[in-house]
Every structure is written in C-alpha cells, then in structure tokens.
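Data deposition worksheet. Section B asks for the primary sequence of the deposited chain exactly as it was used as input, without tags or linkers unless they were present during the calculation. Section C holds the resulting structure in token form. Section D is free text for depositor observations; keep each observation to a single sentence. Incomplete worksheets are returned to the depositor.
Section A, Depositor: J.P.
Section B:
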Amino acid sequence: MTTSRSILVTSALPYANGPIHLGHALEYIQTDIWVRFQRLRGHKVVYVCASDAHGTPIMLSARKEGLTPEELVAGYHEQHDRELAGLQVEFDNFYTTHSPENRELVERIYEALDGAGHITRRTIDQAYDEQEQMFLPDRYVRGTCPNCGAPDQSGDNCENCGASYTPRDLINPLSVISGKPPVRRESEHFFFRLENFEQELREYIAGGHVHSAVAAKLGM
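Section C:
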C-alpha cells in the first residue's frame, strides 16, 4: 500500500509580457497530468503557479504598448488564466508575483537573511544605455564575440563557439533597446551568501533528497 504524501508542485512562471506559447503549454499539460496521477495514487497535491510580473521584458513591453507595467501585467495575467483554463490545466492557485502577499513574504525573508548576515552588498561595473536611461541585463547587449569573432552575439555567451564572457568583453557592443553603444556605470548589487549554508546543502544533497543526476550536476 502506498503511503500518502503531501506534495507541493509548481511550473516555470510565464512572463506577463505576452500570451502563452507552445513551450508553456507543453510544460503545464505534462505537469497537470503528473499531478492528476499522484492524486489518483492517494497523495495530497497542491499545484500552484503565477504570472511573473517583474523584470526588464515587462518594462519594455509596457513602454512599447503605451501602458504602465501594472496595466500590462493585469491584462496578460487574465489572458494566461483564460488560456490555461482552456487547456484544462487545473491549478489550485494561479496568482501573480506582484501580489501584496508575495511582496510581504519576500520582504520578511530578505530582512531575516540580511539581519543574520547572509546578504552582502557590492558595487559592480555594468552596461548602461544613456539614451534609455537604464542599466542593461547581459542579454540586452550584443556585439562581436571576443573569442571567435562571430557578429551579433549576446552579452553573456556566444551561440557560435559556446564561449562565456561578460558584456564588457564584447567587441563593438550595442544596446538591444536603443542600438547605441552602452557606457560603463557603477551600481550597487545585493548578493546572497550561499557559502554560509554550504555544509547544510552538502548534507542535504548527499542524503538522497535529490535525483542522482541533479546531485552529479552539483558535483556531489
């Protein structure tokens, strides 16, 4: 007889800057099938997901459509909910990362980590688009690969030779947004001190709590 388990399930959150695409549909339908199967086996399963309402793509899409980010997110969240229901994907809760509950929980978690010394602050050099007045994520800078010379490569790795680098290493870098060469500016970033939990994480992974392939990828 199978021992009843309590299982929390989620899927990759869709960005709220466009409709659901085939990749989303594949993942959610597969996950929904797995959730239904586990329930048939007598397990208690809670399946949750949400529209991802934060990030550069949201800001740029809102600007392009002449909306506030909040208006854009609200519209696409409603569309996501409707489209997924049409695929008969049944979430126990399909919400948004912009909810007041999520903000409160994130702030509480951050304050607890910061108070315990698990957050560090560092000033880093980053690409900045002067025309758009914004810092650029690596993927929003493109140029010539410094390793193989392939043109029009993103700011973190080359699709031609597979080399990894930073936007600063690109030859003739350009902002994807304005098409102008970015400048370098300093900005303060916050980092989680993962090394503070190294021993606990090693013991957890070695204890058979994750798939062997995952443990191997993590070097355990």
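Section D:
The radius of gyration is 21 Å.
The chain has a mean pLDDT of 94.
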